C-alpha cells in the first residue's frame, strides 16, 4: 500500500520569516500524523533557511511515524544523521541560490563521495535514499553506491501537467510520466525501493500514485498551502485519500 511522507519545511519557513517561535514544526508533525501521514520529511539545509538543528532534535524525540531527513552529502550532515538516526536519510543536491531543490542528484559524477556517505549512513542503521532524475544511468549508479531507496524527481512531470492545462492525457504529460514509470521499473529490478516526489499536488498526484510498485510519495508545499484554508490534518487526509483511490482504480478488475 502506498505511503505518504509529509514535508513540513514550509511550516518552518513561515516561522523564520518573522524570526520567532511559531508556527512550531513539531505541532505540524503531530497534525500530519493525525491526518494519516506515514512519515515526516524535513530538509536541514546547510544555510538553515527554514528547518533548524533544534527542530530535527525535537522531531527525532517526538515523531511517532517515520522521520526522513533530507540533506546534502556533506560530512556535517552525515554526522548529524548518524547521531540522530532518522529512519531514512535522503541525499539531495543543494544550492544556496535555489528557492527549492531544482533537480536530481548527479550520482554518476560523484560516485565515490556518495558511496562513502551511503556507507556511513548504512553503518549507523539508517535507510539510505537518493533523490534523482528519471534517468537510467542515475538509477544504475544509485545501485552501485548501495542506496536502498531512489526517490524520482517528479518536477518535470508536474510542470508539464501545469503547462498543458492540467490535461493528464496530454502527450507531453504522458511522456514525462512514462519516464518516471521506466525509472521505477529499473529501481525495482535492481532491488531498491521506488519513491517519488517534488511539485506533486492535489490535481496531478493520482497518475503518479497509480504507477506499478511505487512505495512512497513525499509532498510538502501543496499540503501546507491547502492547510492555510482547511487545516493541516484535513489537508493531509485529503491527499492520502487521493493516493489510495488512485491505487484502488489501478487494481480494480476490468469487465
Write a structural description.
The chain has 255 residues and is of the alpha/beta class. It has a single domain (3-24, 34-251), classed as TIM Barrel (Alpha-Beta Barrel). Helix content is 50%, strand content 16%. The chain has helices spanning 9-18, 25-35, 53-62, 75-84, 111-123, 136-145, 155-163, 171-189, 205-209, 221-230, 232-251, and strands at 3-7, 39-43, 66-71, 88-91, 127-132, 149-153, 193-197, 216-219. It has an eight-stranded parallel β-barrel, surrounded by eight helices. Helix 2 (25-35) runs parallel beside helix 11 and helix 6 runs parallel beside helix 8. The longest helix has 20 residues, at 232-251. The chain is globular, with a radius of gyration of 17 Å.
Give the SSE map.
Blueprint: E1 3-7, H1 9-18, H2 25-35, E2 39-43, H3 53-62, E3 66-71, H4 75-84, E4 88-91, H5 111-123, E5 127-132, H6 136-145, E6 149-153, H7 155-163, H8 171-189, E7 193-197, H9 205-209, E8 216-219, H10 221-230, H11 232-251
Parallel strand pairs: 1-2, 1-8, 2-3, 3-4, 4-5, 5-6, 6-7, 7-8
Helix pairs in contact: 2-11, 5-6, 6-8, 7-8, 10-11
Brief description of this entry?
Helix content is 50%, strand content 16%.
Percent in strands: 15-25%
Q: Provide the number of structural domains.
A: 1
Strand arrangement in the largest pleated sheet: 1-2-3-4-5-6-7-8
Tell me the radius of gyration: 17 Å
Helix content: 40-55%
CATH architecture: Alpha-Beta Barrel
| CATH fourth-tier homologous superfamily | Aldolase class I
Number of helices: 11
Amino acid at each position: 500500500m502506498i505511503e505518504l511522507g509529509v514535508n513540513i519545511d514550509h511550516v518552518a519557513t513561515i516561522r523564520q520569516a518573522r524570526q520567532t517561535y511559531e508556527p512550531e514544526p513539531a505541532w505540524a508533525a503531530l497534525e500530519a500524523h493525525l491526518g494519516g501521514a506515514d512519515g515526516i520529511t524535513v530538509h536541514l539545509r546547510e544555510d538553515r533557511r527554514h528547518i533548524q538543528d533544534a527542530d530535527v532534535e525535537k522531531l527525532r524525540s517526538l515523531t511517532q511515524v517515520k522521520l526522513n531527513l533530507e540533506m546534502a552529502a556533506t560530512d556535517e550532515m552525515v554526522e548529524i544523521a548518524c547521531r540522530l538516526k532518522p529512519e531514512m536519510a535522503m541525499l539531495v543536491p543543494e544550492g544556496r541560490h535555489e528557492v527549492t531543490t531544482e533537480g536530481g542528484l548527479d550520482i554518476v559524477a560523484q560516485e565515490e563521495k556518495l558511496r562513502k556517505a551511503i556507507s556511513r549512513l548504512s553503518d549507523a542503521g539508517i535507510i539510505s535514499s537518493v533523490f534523482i532524475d528519471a534517468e537510467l544511468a542515475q538509477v544504475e549508479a544509485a545501485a552501485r553506491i548501495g542506496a536502498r531507496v531512489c526517490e524520482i524527481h517528479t518536477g518535470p512531470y508536474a510542470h508539464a501537467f501545469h503547462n498543458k492545462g492540467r490535461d493528464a492525457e496530454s502527450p507531453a504529460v504522458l511522456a514525462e510520466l512514462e519516464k518516471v514509470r521506466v525509472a521505477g521499473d529499473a529501481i525495482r529490478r535492481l532491488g531498491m525501493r521506488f519513491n517519488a516526489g517534488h511539485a506533486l499536488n492535489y490535481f496531478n498526484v493520482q497518475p503518479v500514485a497509480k504507477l506499478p510498485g511505487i512505495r512512497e510519495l513525499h509532498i510538502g508545499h501543496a499540503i501546507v498551502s491547502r492547510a492555510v484554508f482547511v487545516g493541516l490534518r484535513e489537508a493531509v487526509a485529503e491527499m492520502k485519500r487521493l493516493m489510495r483511490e488512485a491505487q484502488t482504480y489501478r487494481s480494480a478488475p476490468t469487465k
